[in-house]
Amino acid sequence: MLRAEGDRKAGAALRVDPVADASLPTRHGKFRAMAFAVEDDPAEVLALVFGSAAEGLLPLVRLHSECLTGDALGSLRCDCGEQLDASLRLIAEAGFGVLLYLRQEGRGIGLINKLRAYALQDEGANTVGANKLLGLPVDGRRYVSAAAVLRHLGMTSIRLLTNNPAKRRALQAEDLRVVERVPLEMPPNPFDRSYLETKAALMGHQLPAGRRRTVPESVGTTTLPVLPVSPRPVPSRDPILRPSVTVHYAQTLDGRIATRTGHSQWISGPETLRFAHALRAAHDAVMVGVGTVVADDPRLTVRHVEGRSPLRVVVDSQLRLPLAANVIRDSAAPTLVATTDRAAEERVRSVQRVGVEVLVVQEDEQGRVDLTHLLRRLGERGLESVMIEGGARLITSALRLRVVDRLVVTIAPKLIGQGIEAVGDLDIARLSEAIEFDRAGFTRLGDDLVFDGSLR
After folding, report:
1. Choice between 4 and 404, residue whose per-residue pLDDT is larger
2. For the whole model, what pTM was predicted?
3. Backbone region of residue 263 per phi and psi (left: phi > 0; alpha: psi in -120 to 50; beta: other values)
4. Do 269 and 207 fall into the same domain?
5. Last residue of a domain, one of 220, 255, 283
6. Residue 251: closest CA among 280, 278, 276, 283
7. Do residues 162 and 286 share a domain?
């Protein structure tokens, strides 16, 4: 919304002219659609009003800025379309309120410039940095017309549906009383996760406690790898003691990560393979069990996207790692083998002679590498994030110990019947004990679905 405000005093009345009024039935209920022309504003304001004032009932108000790509085209780069739908539902459930649809595309920079900003984001800039690179305001929206329409509707004390404190301040500056801010957070998908984090970190958008993350300001102008989805690790709930832990694996529709013979290449498609490499590049270390190395002989490096290959950590309680394995022969990244006192000294020396570090850690009750102790040892080395890629025993152990912060699962549209399960026994007897997730969502990549969620 571009306005020639001049020296207008905040709160001064603007002329508001109703220009259209009709009923609008929606799947959330029947709204009254009212269009207004506001003095000095070239763009009309659309008000979707639900219900009427009742004693003690304050209106629930949403200021929604136009987003053609999200509202109409279903874009996953933002949560605008989901917020629009949720706002109408919540207003209808409240019984009285209004959604003001404001013609302020792209936070006020317009559709074409928004697409230009998207192009810069494809090259690695974030939503704040892209606008700066174009020489445009980070947020050019104004809410003077919105305040004028609310006053015209008799709504001077409201409950505001928003995560953006700037909207609250703007209405209060226009002498409207915001009695309550009602949060409106949508579950992120892998395409908009970084966008939402940037708005929270750099624009002050308010997310529930514990869900905020830090995005370095330099990300706004630094060229980053082009990624199909955001790979950012979730901060550890226990950052002093250990790195954050992401578990990632690919499975079939029936939950298998390999056939009954152990064959697992390739379950997922090329798009999700690229995503897996982006995840690797975003972590300080990638961890697998020795069984995965023996069965698949992976390289565990970043090859399908730009980025740094992380430290490779092989969990091997008896040190049976083949000396001809790719994680040893491929020098693209360092390798560390975590073992126990059960490993023979001569075997330790053999592995060390080929340039691989051997780290001896405590045993757990089964005589295997104590995963909790290993993670703490890695944390002491300064590692902030670790991704576990397999196999099933290591994944199950991490989930049982509740050391996982984020779970990313690629689901391929395949059935193989009997095979190796992705997750084994978690010692859960009742559904109330089940591991649950928040900030969770599904995104389609190629023929596959990607589940991405933070453990609650």
Report:
1. 404
2. 0.53
3. beta
4. no
5. 220
6. 276
7. no
* Token digits of residue 81: 């379309």
Length of the chain counted residue by residue: 456
Say what the alpha-carbon torsion angle 412, 417, 419, 421 is, to the nearest 10 degrees: 60
**Active site annotation includes 141:** yes
Pick from 164, 232, 231, 161: which is nearest to 202 by CA?
164
Contact 290, 283 (CB under 8 A): no
Q: In what order do the strands lie in the sheet with 437-445?
A: 357-360, 335-339, 311-315, 285-289, 385-390, 244-252, 406-412, 448-455, 437-445
DSSP 299-341: -----SSSSPPPEEEEE-TT----TTSHHHH-TTS-EEEEE-T
CATH number of residue 177's parent domain? 3.40.50.10990
Query: Do 335 and 426 reside in the same domain of the chain?
Result: yes
- Give yes or no for residue 440 having a pLDDT over 90: no
Mean predicted confidence (pLDDT) in 307-316:
92
409, two tokens: 């699962």
Range of the domain at 163: 16-220
Considering the domain architecture, whether residues 263 and 206 belong to the same structural domain is answered as no
* Within-domain flag for 411: yes
In a domain, 89, yes or no: yes
Query: Phi/psi at 259 (nearest 5 deg)?
Result: -75, 175
Catalytic residue among 141, 193, 368, 377: 141
Q: Are residues 37 and 149 in the same domain?
A: yes
- The total of other beta-carbon atoms located within 10 Å of residue 352's CB is 12
Yes or no: say if 129 and 135 are a contact pair by the CB < 8 Å rule.
Answer: no
> pLDDT tens, 199-233?
777 777 766 443 333 333 333 333 333 344 555 56
370 has catalytic annotation: no
Can you tell me whether residue 52 is helix, strand or coil? Answer: coil
Distance of CA 180 to the CA centre of its chain: 27
Average pLDDT of every residue of the chain: 85
For the stretch 409-425, pLDDT in tens is 999 998 888 888 888 88
pLDDT at position 12:
59
Could you say which of 139, 192, 284, 316 is catalytic? 139
